[in-house]
Amino acid sequence: MSSFSVTEPSARSKWFAGTLVILYALITMVPLAWIMLTGFKSPSDAISYPPKIVFEPTLEGYVNLFTTRTRQTPEFLAANPPEKWYEEIVREYDMVIAGPSKFGERFLNSVIIGFGSTFLSIFLGTLAAYAFSRFKIPLADDLLFFILSTRMMPPIAVAIPIFLMYRQLGLSDTHLGMILLYTGVNISLAVWLLKGFIDEIPLEYEEAALIDGYTRFQAFYKVVLPQAATGIASTAIFCLIFAWNEYAFAVLLTSGTAQTAPPFIPTIIGVGGLDWPAVAAGATIFLLPVMIFTILLRKHLLRGITFGAVRK
Amino acid sequence: MTDSLDTRAAAATPVRVAREIRGLSDRAIAWIFVAPTIFLLLAINIFPLIWTIRLSFTNFKANRNRDLEWVGLRNYERILGDSDIWLNMQATAHFLFWTIFFQVLIGFTLAYLINKKFKGNDLWTTIIVLPMMLSPAVVGNFWKFLYQPQIGLFNYVIAFFTGKEPSSFEMLGSVNLAPWSIVIVDTWMWTPFVMLICLAGLRSIPDYIYEAAEVDRASKLRQFFTITIPMVLPFLMLAVLFRGIENFKMFDLVVQLTGGGPGSITELTSINLKREAFEKWRTGYASAYAIILFVTVFGLASIYVKALNKVKER
Hints:
The structure holds two protein chains of two kinds.
Chain A: H1 11-38, H2 43-46, H3 60-66, E1 67-71, H4 74-79, H5 85-91, E2 95-100, H6 103-134, H7 140-149, H8 155-169, H9 175-199, H10 203-211, H11 216-227, H12 229-245, H13 248-253, H14 261-264, E3 269-270, E4 273-274, H15 276-296, H16 298-311
Antiparallel strand pairs in A: 1-2, 3-4
Chain B: H1 2-12, H2 15-55, H3 74-80, H4 83-114, H5 121-129, H6 136-146, H7 153-162, H8 178-203, H9 207-215, H10 220-248, H11 252-257, H12 269-279, H13 283-313
């Protein structure tokens, strides 16, 4: 039947469409591929003209990303032969490794704040979404819409009072402060999305459980939660990606202890200006998890984007 | 153990009493479940908004420890009368218009092609979607590298195809090209979003409509303009709304790419706002600015949503 269907595109138009889409996909990947390649170049290869596609790969960028280095006298260098492979790499520039750089810390901050705020958004968001979905709460819809509309404010505008408030409360540049902030920003969308998923679960399941003698709370976590698992997972991905990528609040409200990777990566400075291979290495390490995540979880993720957008 | 005890207790309770307890606990649970979220929203969303409104009537400076003075509407008057701010608005409008134009054009075309359901289309869709998942600040930072005059890949590719010298033009340094350089990166990054929404729209059109059109011998072109376009339009308009709001707020990507330069040619309103609030520390003035921006987006978005609902009703 399907081969006779009038809505099935012809083989030729499929081939044509496929070629164009693949072409676009390949072109759109060039900048990303280029950054990943640059991470394995030496600083001189990275800024050579014409741009080099074939080059001798080196881990210099990665070593520079994770370490701080100092220049040493020839006598010192002769007296202390390099022990590890990464020490050998910096020897070419008459340098020794002085210690770890801040990148590891910043990356860890991104992980802590990202997962912390995601967990909190999902935990509070699921409870609230369930209540909004199942109980009559006065003005629920208006309230939700108003809260969602505060997201129309530029982050810088929100950052002004948050900056003052955090300064008073001693929350500036702390993990807790950033986790609460990202949760506050994410939770309106999280509740909105989760309410959609919970609305889809038939009321009958819970009613049956209640009749069987479950309490409301038991019905919630034994019946509703497992049913909403997929929705919760895809909402969690969105919260995580937002917190992971966020820059405006991070650059204004953190400077040291709780600084995440996005404000840090552009400030990696090498000898004589930006150390592009190290910046590229940092970008690669930072972006790769999201890319792998996207490819692995594409079904939920793509559905979530359209679902979230269309519902609003 | 407690489980079975609960169960037994529940079974033993007379129905009327049970309903009463449950009715009570329902309300209690509703509030327990909602309260932390409401509290957080008040603290992070509503309270700052009110504080911003309050500050916008003062001459407060966050880096000085002096008492604030009420200045009434003076901040608002100064902002609306400032010609530099209108230049920032123009830069934002240019950025908004062209990013949306290209994203709708390319995004819809891609969605239309992907909807031809060629083999492997979902894998390629995922690859196309990758840029929009990335951190805008990091993306802006590495595009800066691609845009470098002599050594950048972008300049090299353009030079290769046009025969110009790759060092003869500076995407980020030239007054004429910088506004386009940010449009290009934003389009690269966010076209997939428009594409996904359009794809959802295209997939929502039931086959039988096309089948009926085919029976009526409507040409493919006619089907495209009388079925496909009108049915996708509400989705497309929604995508435009989201991109519009997001790009009105645009900060991270552009600040990393151009920092607002050269001069202030790509200084979008958000970047300007950051300068006022966190570099010049004119907190009161910046608060009034923030409120004006919020009212502008909110107003434009409300008008737009009304139009969108009309299209949906048709």
